[in-house]
Amino acid sequence: LLPGSTMRTSVDSPRNMQLVRSRLLKGTSLRSTIIGVIPNTSDPTSDCDDLPNLHRIGTAALAVQVVGSNWPKPHYTLLVTGLCRFQILQLLKEKPYPVAEVQQLDRLEQFTNGHKSEEELGELSEQFYKYAVQLVEMLDMSVPAVAKLRRLLDNLPREALPDILTSIIRTTNQEKLQILDAVRLEERFKMTIPLLVRQIEGLKLLQKTRKSKQDDDKRVVAIRPNRRITHGSITEDEEEEEDHDDVVMLEKKIRTSSMSEQALKVCLKEIKRLKKMPQSMPEYALTRNYLELMVELPWNKSTKDRLEIRAARIVLDNDHYAMEKLKKRVLEYLAVRQLKNNLKGPILCFVGPPGVGKTSVGRSIAKTLGREFHRIALGGVCDQSDIRGHRRTYVGSMPGRIINGLKTVGVNNPVFLLDEVDKLAKSLQGDPAAALLEVLDPEQNHSFTDHYLNVAFDLSQVLFIATANTTATIPPALLDRMEVIQVPGYTQEEKIEIAHRHLIPKQLELHGLTPQQIQIPQVTTLGIITRYTREAGVRALDRKLGAICRAVAVKVAEGQHKEAKPDRAEVGEGEDCKEHITEDAKAESISDTADLPLPPEMPILIDFHALKDILGPPMYDMEVSERLSQPGVAIGLAWTPLGGEIMFVEASRMDGDGQLTLTGQLGDVMKESAHLAISWLRSNAKRYQLTNASGSFDLLDNTDIHLHFPAGAVTKDGPSAGVTIVTCLASLFSGRLVCSDVAMTGEITLRGLVLPVGGIKDKVLAAHRAGLKRIIIPQRNEKDLEEIAAHVRQDLTFVLAACLDEVLNAAFDGGFAVKASLEHFNSKL
Ligand code: ADP
């Protein structure tokens, strides 16, 4: 800080903070706003607490403004104006902030009545004044600050000029320090004149080059190296030059890249603009990012397909157990690709519950084709710009996920897996499904235009595969473009095989275990499947196996650790290690086994006790027979996006005026089914001898009925609960129990016919999982049974019903005889 100049400085050392707090902020007099500013000549990196050696000379300053802030750390920012030089005579105290006795060096009289000095300095100061004027006039006078400076030059005493100009022109700290130390005016003038001259020369050169730059861009490049010689003041220009080199490089890359003609044209136009743009403009960065993306995109870089159906079959079979139908369709699809050598055709969409291997089949397809794989998660995407990019006019605009994906994989023929297309949402920002249409349509996607790129990109080589949990929520137009392949859930046997062939080896590898260290027999796997998971896929099973491996890893690691001590190594209580322990000793055994070293040759066997230790008590129990212990309950089969489920439908009646109450978040179709069921039962009440509580055949006379569908938190809809509601109500009105091992599904009509429904395979698997034995399905669904694995079919009895009579007969032990009641009537007559 030199007298006459102003600067903003930040203080954060404890000493200075104290000074600000107790002097500047507390003081009320003018005196208290004046502080001494001394250049810090000590090494800025040395971080010691002591007061550094103070420079001999400093500047008294007026603190004009104090601003405090806590971020990023507590500090004050001071705006200080230099008044005059002082010299330190003696340091009075150091703490809490330094106070010293000083002597003022510059004095006002020196400036005002110093005729003598003027004479002495006459020539020097005149010379200085001339240079100063020359310098200021080289600047742009239209800037108000420059005009003001020009006026100041005339009005200020000449003696004040060296200080003021030194703080304006470009100087090093060292030079400034020299000026500060130059207490004698003569010396000060002498020192500043060369600095002024240097600045003037620099400016002259700059102006010259500016002019020639306008004439001819090329010459600038030639002149620039010379300018380096006039070091000091042109660092900014150097940066600009470097940047210019970058732009030239970029242009070269654009020209050599293989982008389409249209894209090339756009890029060249942009680069032309970029060259003219000052780099500080926000648009500069935008344009540059855009051009870099254009260069990076794989315009015609692709991997070579190595498609051989036989190899593909092997890869698919090796990676996935079961799912025959899916694998067959995928192979067909690939075979057609091989023969026809182009990709136009329907997009495959795998639909099924979570964890049935949809994503991993997609990955295998990429592997068989030798293509890159990229997954695009669409769950919850509600903005079409996510697919198609933002226009470049927006701040923070970027390309959509498709283009981003291409950039990531770096080739133009990857396999893109559009995950969860059923979870696309609509919002004010447009409909992403509509944007996807363009991507997926083989007629259109060879010229897909991302809003950010604004030029067409050919997507026709990309292989798209979609996955979804349900087709119900896929927008119809999108569904229309895809070929849906249902991937149903697995049976218990399939799950066991998958676990032993794929999941367990994978988990072992993941946890650094070997089959010699852990053994999971098939019964244990079955136990996990039935008692710890209830799902259609194998994801929870995979997680549980992971938990087991983790627990075993701890024991194995501990065992290894202890084995290092030879005296304990032969404690061969293998039984304990195997965790063959009685129930009551179990609690101890956990800690016991942890303490025992494990003989390395003995694998840890995971049996039911170990399972209970590791996974806790079983989460699911068979509850079927318990819940069917009173009339008015029947088991239905439902289909959900997560696979099949069994559902207990409950009914009760009470005095009332014939109202039907339905609970359990039912959709309209389901409510109508309930009304249908009641109507049919009322119209057939006599035939089946169904009565209300007071013995009347009018079932709703003085009676209210309540029907409840459990899992009340989940919305349910669909017609397939019809037969279950009828059975449940028939049980309620007849007072008979429904067989506890029978489940049913089917839509009903008012005339008592049973119509076919969907999702039979999932529903049957759910019933099988729950341990039910008989399943009533609509007769017209018979063909669906073929898809069900033979061993599951063996375990179950299927009743094919065409009308409700058959359903009721099958649902109740000994049948729901109509004949008996007819005879009864006969005898009465
Ligand atoms: P989805 O995409 O259907 O939700 P994933 O593809 O993520 O399911 O599959 C979950 C896990 O289950 C994966 O680790 C996968 O390898 C495994 N998996 C699923 N089905 C099979 C199968 N049939 N054979 C082998 N592993 C399978």
Automatic annotation (TrEMBL):
<dbReference type="InterPro" id="IPR003959">
    <property type="entry name" value="ATPase_AAA_core"/>
</dbReference>
<dbReference type="GO" id="GO:0005524">
    <property type="term" value="F:ATP binding"/>
</dbReference>
<feature type="active site">
    <location>
        <position position="720"/>
    </location>
</feature>
<keyword id="KW-0547">Nucleotide-binding</keyword>
<protein>
    <recommendedName>
        <fullName>Lon protease homolog</fullName>
        <ecNumber>3.4.21.-</ecNumber>
    </recommendedName>
</protein>
<dbReference type="InterPro" id="IPR027501">
    <property type="entry name" value="Lonp2_euk"/>
</dbReference>
<dbReference type="GO" id="GO:0005782">
    <property type="term" value="C:peroxisomal matrix"/>
</dbReference>
<dbReference type="InterPro" id="IPR015947">
    <property type="entry name" value="PUA-like_sf"/>
</dbReference>
<comment type="subunit">
    <text>Interacts with PEX5. Interacts with TYSND1. May interact with enzymes involved in beta-oxidation of fatty acids, including ACOX1/AOX.</text>
</comment>
<keyword id="KW-0720">Serine protease</keyword>
<comment type="similarity">
    <text>Belongs to the peptidase S16 family.</text>
</comment>
<keyword id="KW-0645">Protease</keyword>
<feature type="active site">
    <location>
        <position position="763"/>
    </location>
</feature>
<dbReference type="GO" id="GO:0004252">
    <property type="term" value="F:serine-type endopeptidase activity"/>
</dbReference>
<dbReference type="InterPro" id="IPR027065">
    <property type="entry name" value="Lon_Prtase"/>
</dbReference>
<dbReference type="Pfam" id="PF00004">
    <property type="entry name" value="AAA"/>
</dbReference>
<dbReference type="InterPro" id="IPR004815">
    <property type="entry name" value="Lon_bac/euk-typ"/>
</dbReference>
<dbReference type="InterPro" id="IPR054594">
    <property type="entry name" value="Lon_lid"/>
</dbReference>
<dbReference type="InterPro" id="IPR027417">
    <property type="entry name" value="P-loop_NTPase"/>
</dbReference>
<keyword id="KW-0378">Hydrolase</keyword>
<keyword id="KW-0067">ATP-binding</keyword>
<feature type="domain" description="Lon proteolytic">
    <location>
        <begin position="628"/>
        <end position="814"/>
    </location>
</feature>
<feature type="binding site">
    <location>
        <begin position="352"/>
        <end position="359"/>
    </location>
    <ligand>
        <name>ATP</name>
    </ligand>
</feature>
<dbReference type="InterPro" id="IPR046336">
    <property type="entry name" value="Lon_prtase_N_sf"/>
</dbReference>
<dbReference type="InterPro" id="IPR014721">
    <property type="entry name" value="Ribsml_uS5_D2-typ_fold_subgr"/>
</dbReference>
<dbReference type="Pfam" id="PF02190">
    <property type="entry name" value="LON_substr_bdg"/>
</dbReference>
<dbReference type="InterPro" id="IPR003593">
    <property type="entry name" value="AAA+_ATPase"/>
</dbReference>
<keyword id="KW-0576">Peroxisome</keyword>
<dbReference type="InterPro" id="IPR003111">
    <property type="entry name" value="Lon_prtase_N"/>
</dbReference>
<dbReference type="InterPro" id="IPR020568">
    <property type="entry name" value="Ribosomal_Su5_D2-typ_SF"/>
</dbReference>
<dbReference type="InterPro" id="IPR008269">
    <property type="entry name" value="Lon_proteolytic"/>
</dbReference>
<feature type="domain" description="Lon N-terminal">
    <location>
        <begin position="1"/>
        <end position="200"/>
    </location>
</feature>
<dbReference type="Pfam" id="PF22667">
    <property type="entry name" value="Lon_lid"/>
</dbReference>
<dbReference type="GO" id="GO:0006515">
    <property type="term" value="P:protein quality control for misfolded or incompletely synthesized proteins"/>
</dbReference>
<dbReference type="Pfam" id="PF05362">
    <property type="entry name" value="Lon_C"/>
</dbReference>
<keyword id="KW-0007">Acetylation</keyword>
<dbReference type="GO" id="GO:0004176">
    <property type="term" value="F:ATP-dependent peptidase activity"/>
</dbReference>
<dbReference type="GO" id="GO:0016887">
    <property type="term" value="F:ATP hydrolysis activity"/>
</dbReference>
<dbReference type="InterPro" id="IPR008268">
    <property type="entry name" value="Peptidase_S16_AS"/>
</dbReference>
